Amino acid sequence: MSALYQRSATQIAAAVNAREVSAVEVLGAHMARIERVEPSIGAFLSLTADLAREQARRVDEAVAAGKRLPLAGVPVAVKDNMCLQGTVTTAGSKILAGWVAPYTATAVARLLEAGCLPVGKANLDEFAMGSSCENSALGVTRNPWDTDRVPGGSSGGSVAAVAAGEAALATASDTGGSIREPAAFCGVVGMKPTYGRISRYGLIAFASSLDQIGPIARTVEDAAAMYGVMAGHDPMDATSLPRPVEPTLPALRTDLRGLRVGLVREFDTKDLGEEIDAAYRRAYAQLAALGAEIVDVALPHAEYGLATYYLIAPAEASSNLARFDGVRYGLRVDGANVQEMYGKTRAAGFGPEVKRRILIGTYALSSGYYDAYYVRAQKARTLTAGDFERAFAACDLIACPAASSPAFEFGAKSDDPVSMYLMDYYTIPMSLAGLPALSVPCGFVRDGSPGGRELPLGLQLVAPLYEEARLFAAAHAYEQATRYTLDRQPPVVESVR
Amino acid sequence: MSGTMVEQTYEAVIGIECHVELKTASKMFCGCRNEFGGEPNTQLCPVCLALPGALPVPNRVAVEHVVRAGLACGAAIPSFSKFDRKNYFYPDMPKDYQISQFDMPLVSGGVVRFRREDGSEGSCRLTRIHLEEDTGKSTHMGSGDGRIAGSTHSLVDFNRAGVPLMEVVSEPELRSAEDAVAFLEYLRLTFLYLGISDVKMEEGSLRCDANVSIRPVGSTEFGTKTEIKNMNSFRSVWRAIQSEIERQRSVLAEGGRVAQETRGWDEANGITHSMRSKEQAHDYRYFPDPDLVPLTLEAAWVEDLRAKTGLIPIAAYERLERACGLAPAQIRQLLGDPALVRFLLQTVDMRPDDVAFAQAAANWLLGDVLRMLNERGVSIDGQRTLTAQALAECAELAMAGAITSKTAKELLERVMAEGGSPKEIVAREGLAQLSDPSMIAGIVDQVMAANAKSVADFQAGKENAIKALVGQVMKVSKGKANPQLAESLLRERLKQP
Amino acid sequence: MSSGSGIDVRYVARLARLDLTEEEATLYQRQLDRLLEHVESLQRLDVGRVAPTAQVVPLTNVLRDDVTCPSLDRAQAMAGAPAREGAFFRVSRIIEEQE
Ligand SMILES: [Mg+2]
Ligand SMILES: [Zn+2]
Known about the structure:
heterotrimer; B: Arc Repressor Mutant, subunit A; 3 domains; 9-stranded mixed sheet; 15 helices; 19% strand; C: mainly alpha; 30% helix; binds magnesium ion; binds zinc ion
């Protein structure tokens, strides 16, 4: 059997429930692993070892008392924009540095109830705004496949921790691609549920109408299990869906017979380079080989996705981030009066990307521009949702890239925000439409430099609203048939023993 | 100044805006207690303190209260409504935006009908009523008088933050300070009758601003208005409007122009003073709150609430006037106590169209019953012994001459103390008035024999002596003798030598 | 200052209570102008008869019952306060709004 830190969540839970191994032992193996790889990865902003140990003891007691927990003893990294009572929760921002959350996010609480051990708070782009994790004000996270490269973002710490074996699972959040793009960059499975499926209560808001929590795991099965624990109605979130959650694990499949998979006309991969184009063609062929019927679909408004998103998300963010004002918690830089205090506190507390988005969002909502920008973007959002509705009349799932490139080097896109924003070209339309979507590893490309590393790519699968079970079922079949990352680990995992 | 100036007659144009804290158990968007006067900063949770990640969920009862307020004013209830964010920074507003309603309030239109002190009728239409949340409370320090001007710093208590707040905006249809106060009084009474607010100006659960302008009589255009704030009683509303009308009149009389501004009412000096010299256009950046979903006010829900609207003060006024024949002063005495009004009308309803009975019941209620309640320090609905039925019986017995008014008073005292039916008590204990001359004659003889001095006095021409003798008859008969009958029998006997 | 019909970074920063240095103002002006250019593409869309989407999930009337639940105690509520005085949060002098 492989080392404890290499095992999947499902395997760990089975072993802990069967009392073959204790949660305390599982935790020990992961803490040791974290100690060894963290210096080269930097997935965490803080470790919560004491809390995890306490929880491991509780899990062992419960199991000893005959209880079976769906995620018994599974170490989980918690993205640092989610509240976990008693832990420093920063959203990767200086404005919240050192803030201790006095309550726990619903999704995290459900993981704890299911037996997860919270090992630490994972790094992210400040307030989840970014696609590389470089916007974190509090730490640098490296890609375990190539530590000169970014892990993707905003959930960079979450995906790096899982890829590097520091945790079997991680929570992540996705507003325009923040789960799917980094999952692709780090060769793990990342899934964004239907908007409203997982409670946002306790998730530090970026853009409320788009934010959605989802699982990060090394296998589709693990992601499905974790999703199953976190999903479901929460009365603390008015946008939480009151509908029942279909069980995902029993629905997992090994073929795709009877499924129509749509390839999006507007998402042609030719422009992504020969190697990447070939990889996606292989992926689509594999779906067909598994029995899927490949059909052609159109998303005619896809080209407006980015523009729509970069009005709606900043507009909501500009309002959501107003509360960071130096009055009740967080950073304060004093001034002669309250107005000065606000201006100085927010200038010192927010990083450049957050400031950019607050400015653009404030502008989009301001008097005289609201209709031209914000309302128009909301109408464009309606058109995007309509595109998908029509597409899903012709297919059961959509397949497309999860990102427009593999992981890039640090600093490669830092001075041009728009080129960074383009990383999310393939993920934003689904976010606008609130659809469930997932990224599963679909091969590797060489980075082109001499002696360069192989970098993972992600295949994005998209399902109609509420059809998460279908999404996991198909991703599982594809993953089991291809096994790109199941039998292979990032170099950092191999080099640091 | 100029001797040739023509005396211009102006009329005032007044609109009222008021904020009413709703009476609910919990706050607008969280489960914290909605209670006045708690220890500072003890009624707070992640939601109302706007901690990162917390989300609002609206209070159903608060929504219903506003709809009922609208229905009571005869307003249309739209089928669709929503919450919007009003963005501005203020230290006692935790989120630095207020959840409010912008273009789709819960209530549009409606009218408040009122009666002036002399009983004449007036009315003012409403523009809208919407639902929002209250802010915390700042105490300004270092200025000596608690004023913001000259303060060195402020202390914030957030207990009030998130208390459901209803904003009522009237049309500018009021023409005098008297009417403005009468309008406010009926608005206050309406909410009191509905039981949706304590409407206490001194506790801040009712706060109002007035927009005042003047224009030449006959003109249809509006003059430049000022907004008056800081009025903390109806008396100060009256004084402030009156003084502002006078101020504007003299500004115009001197050939000046009224500046559009916000003016504060200075209670001590009886004047308004400029608070903000230049009225800036605020850029509140309203947009639909993405944490909340829309409200659809289904007809059945609205009808159900309409059925629960109950008695409103203007309708009560009209019934008290018509059915009970009460004078305006008496009605005003009653109207502020909805429980007392309901009690009276319930009593009156037992003999419809019997004005004499209604008047008797009203007199008993406003006289002896009120006195007894005051002596006991209870309200009409704070006691369980005296029922409307009992009051009706007392009134009926007295009207029919079946008991003396003295007996009736004693009966009321008894019923108030121990409950029961007055008619049953009278029958059981033989308290009915003695109106049989043969029975009273015996007592008269007895009294004459025992009071020879009084008999002699009367016969010597002292007319007053008869009173003492009647008193004795009443005493011996234990108050049951019909006093008129007793007196006439006495006179008859005393004439005999 | 204002760049024609484009974004007035200074005005917007004031609304957002965000002090900007000269360099930041220049940089953001340039970057936001470029983003706005990109966003201009939306003006091409015919949205005349399209309803705006504020929320993708078709929920309405999500309301809670009027029941209370325990609050944080004061120590918890004020644990993160940058400045306090007794039982209160303390802030420096409040000046009346001048947008
Ligand atoms: Mg208001
Ligand atoms: Zn609260």
